[in-house]
Predict the structure.
Amino acid sequence: MAAFIQFISGAICPECKRMDTIAISKDDDMIYCVKCSFKEHRPKEPNTKIDTIKAINIEDHKSSKN
């Protein structure tokens, strides 16, 4: 029986730049590319960059100009 590989849809490999070739290891600890030699440990903490984005409500922005 063939091994089950879980791919990350839409992911682009940082090395070979191919799309839909990044997979997650069975234990979810390693991500790797099936077309080149790229491998890295999966990040343990979520990306915190989204916390630094300041969002405004467009309606509030429009009303402040009046």
